[in-house]
Design brief:
Elements (H helix, E strand, L loop, with lengths): L2 E5 L3 H13 L4 E5 L3 H10 L4 E2 L10 E4 L3 H14 L5 E4 L5 H6 L9 E6 L20 E5 L6 H13 L3 E5 L1 H29 L3 H7 L2 H7 L6 H10 L1 H23 L3 H11 L2 H4 L5
Parallel strand pairs: 1-2, 1-4, 2-3, 4-5, 5-6, 7-8
Antiparallel strand pairs: 6-7
Helix pairs in contact: 6-10
């Protein structure tokens, strides 16, 4: 692969560009974005080698799509229209079912690989891109059997070379599981932040009293609403289901508090403590 086109050069797209370029110095990274300021910043930071437009995709060997999931659904068919038969398109969206459905009958479906690298921070934009973001992280690949083997083989080597583990799922399974381990976490952080801000109008009090526990719990509330609103919309059914279960657990906890049943509260927390073992090795 010689020419890689990155559509969206923020945290994920930019970090992929850095590590792929580090491992393959001869590859040329072309950046595509709605905003020229984003491309200028990406050039300044060395994330891309050249600016490009969608019309340049006829020269692509690999296209990496890292834009909000609603934009991916709309743009993906056009991207596939413009690439040569020898090129591969991958996306990094946090939902997969709608994206896969958008191109299921496209003549170049075999040139598309649906994936979700499970990595990130609460920051966004080109300045958020960092080297080593994907080392030891899992890359979920969906419907791999629908992608031409030679193309998927080349792409997956690029991703394993930068330290990612590959795991295969169907899109519906992915979206159901990710609602619990990612989407619910973000909603919880946003709503915790809202609760505290609404209650503590004097921001100084919040920051004076906020310890590392609060900071780490609410960290995800700094994430981009432009990115996360479309994710919640696309995964609505699964998100609502997880929220109902979460709210039920919160209600139970509240009722135990009202009943002064601290033995039951202790047992609730103790039974959840084993999550330490499950999450060992995740950093």
């Amino acid at each position: 692969m010689k020419n890689i086109y990155a559509i969206g050069i923020g945290l994920i797209g930019g970090s992929l560009a850095i590590d792929i370029k580090n491992n393959n110095p001869d590859i040329i990274i072309h950046g595509i974005s709605r905003k020229d300021a984003t491309l200028n910043k990406a050039l300044e930071l060395g994330l891309i080698d050249k600016k490009a437009t969608l019309e340049d995709l006829k020269h692509a060997d690999l296209v990496i799509v890292s834009i909000p999931v609603d934009a991916t659904v709309k743009l993906l068919p056009t991207i596939l229209d413009k690439i040569p038969d020898t090129a591969l398109v991958v996306d990094a969206g946090s939902t997969k079912a709608d994206i896969c459905r958008a191109v299921e009958n496209h003549p170049k479906r075999r040139n598309f690989l649906a994936m979700h690298p499970i990595a990130g921070t609460e920051h966004s934009g080109p300045t958020a891109a960092i080297s080593g973001l994907f080392k030891g992280k899992t890359n979920i690949v969906c419907e791999v059997e629908k992608t031409t083997f030679k193309l998927q083989e080349k792409a997956l080597k690029l991703f394993t070379d930068i330290g990612m583990r590959i795991r295969y799922m169907n899109p519906e399974e992915h979206d159901k599981h990710i609602a619990y381990v990612s989407h619910l976490s973000h909603i919880s952080a946003f709503m915790l932040g809202k609760t505290v801000i609404d209650k503590e109008k004097n921001e100084r009090d919040i920051f004076d009293m906020a310890g590392s526990g609060f900071a780490s719990t609410v960290r995800l509330a700094k994430s981009s609403p432009e990115m996360w609103t479309p994710i919640f919309k696309q995964n609505k059914a699964n998100v609502v289901e997880t929220l109902e279960e979460y709210i039920a657990n919160l209600t139970t906890f509240k009722e135990l508090m009202k009943a002064d049943d601290y033995e039951a509260i202790f047992k609730e927390m103790e039974s959840t403590n084993y999550i330490k073992e499950i999450l060992k090795g995740i950093h």
